[in-house]
Amino acid sequence: MIQLTDIQAAAVRLQGQLLRTPCVASRTLSDITGAQVFLKFENLQFTASFKERGACNKLAQLTPQEQQRGVIAMSAGNHAQGVAYHAQRLGLRAVIVMPRFTPGVKIERTRGFGAEIVLHGDTLDEARTHALMLAEQQQLVFVHPYDDADIIAGQGTVALEMLHEVPDLDTLVIAVGGGGLIAGMATAATALKPAIEIIGVQTSRFPAMVNAIKGTQHPQGSSSIAEGIAVGTPGKISQAIIVRLGLDLVLVDEGDIEQAIVMLLEVEKTLVEGAGAAGLAALLKYPERFKGKKVGLVLCGGNIDPLLLAAIIERGMVRAGRLARIRVSARDIPGTLAKITATVAEAGANIDEVHHQRAFTTLAAQHVEVELVIQTRGPQHIQDVLAQLQRAGLEAHLL
């Protein structure tokens, strides 16, 4: 079992090698959630993830013979970038095995750090098996993303920094995949402040650690927007630490994570990936559990595919009632479409899309259906637009 002294030693090794990220209060998120929310901006690291900490701590302790051989890692992206960046900094050969589903932005960024990229398998477990085979064949040092004491000690430095900045935190809410981050942070935090509460968060599509700790049998999905914590096999070391410290774990859904990503973007003007938003997702899903407490959230990563982000933002606008799809039925005569669009404009909404439908409808032949995607100020504004259309003699409803 790693101790506080291991994490403190890691903190010394990391000095000057990576960013001591800010941990600051968020007044708006505190108002929304009912807790006093403090955010640890690990998405501001050079590789946009806390994973640099463990990678740097591990590589800094390699023997000269191990440095000569080089390293290999398996990762969906953030651990890969951390290993590749610090291997490049130390002049080491780095081979990274990534699952085929890894976002292109993470693949290219990792390749940009000089690593040799191997895409193999559809899951992290398949990538790990292939990486272990290559490690044996090429005599490379295998750098595990979470089931390694040096990696865990490096990740634990996040808690040292948070409690130095905000010593009176009541609770830490931490995303959990393989468990390296929560194991390291919990070891440090409970040693410094035994009464602190540590809560891990997993996506309901990848509940491996929850199942292992609680004995549940939640089914595992095949993909998640939080690919950084989409881990099918929890770490043995981290699992043992979670059990020893009696940590609790909760599940959040994909929609919760999407909502948290959009909220952090809008409120804090900060970009996080799915795993980085898991902590806030838990506060939004279980507000009563955190009400009135001083809660520290780790924004653990900011590497998200731009196309996925665009889709999440658009879906978030729909959930918030700021983007709506309405259907308007009217007689098919000249000027009808102009009347519809003018009425929507008078109601103060902006039209994104228009679909004019004559053939695929059950209306009478002399009628037409027009589907509009409109930008609004919120749910009440949608109702105002529908009411104005109806006052203009048009049949309209929300889809």
What value does the Rg take, in angstroms?
25 Å
What would the average pLDDT be, to the nearest integer? 92
Task: Tell me the name of the CATH class of the largest domain.
Answer: Alpha Beta
Total discrete domains: 3
Question: Count the strands?
Answer: 14
End-to-end Cα distance: 55 Å
What strand line-up does the widest sheet have?
1-2-10-7-8-9
Low-confidence stretches: none
Instruction: Specify the helix fraction band.
Output: 40-55%
Secondary-structure-based class equals alpha/beta
Shape: elongated
> What would you say the CATH architecture of the largest domain is?
3-Layer(aba) Sandwich
* Share of β-strand residues: 15-25%
Provide a descriptive summary of the structure in words.
The structure is a single chain. The protein is of the alpha/beta class and 399 residues long. The protein has three domains: 4-49 and 148-316, 3-Layer(aba) Sandwich (Rossmann fold), CATH 3.40.50; 51-142, 3-Layer(aba) Sandwich (Rossmann fold); 321-398, Alpha-Beta Plaits (2-Layer Sandwich). 45% of the residues lie in helices and 19% in strands. The protein contains 17 helices and 14 strands. A six-stranded mixed beta sheet has the order 1-2-10-7-8-9. A four-stranded parallel beta sheet has the order 5-4-3-6, with helices on both faces. A four-stranded antiparallel beta sheet has the order 12-13-11-14. Helix 3 (51-59) packs parallel to helix 5 (78-90) and helix 9 runs parallel beside helix 11. It is elongated and about 80 Å long.
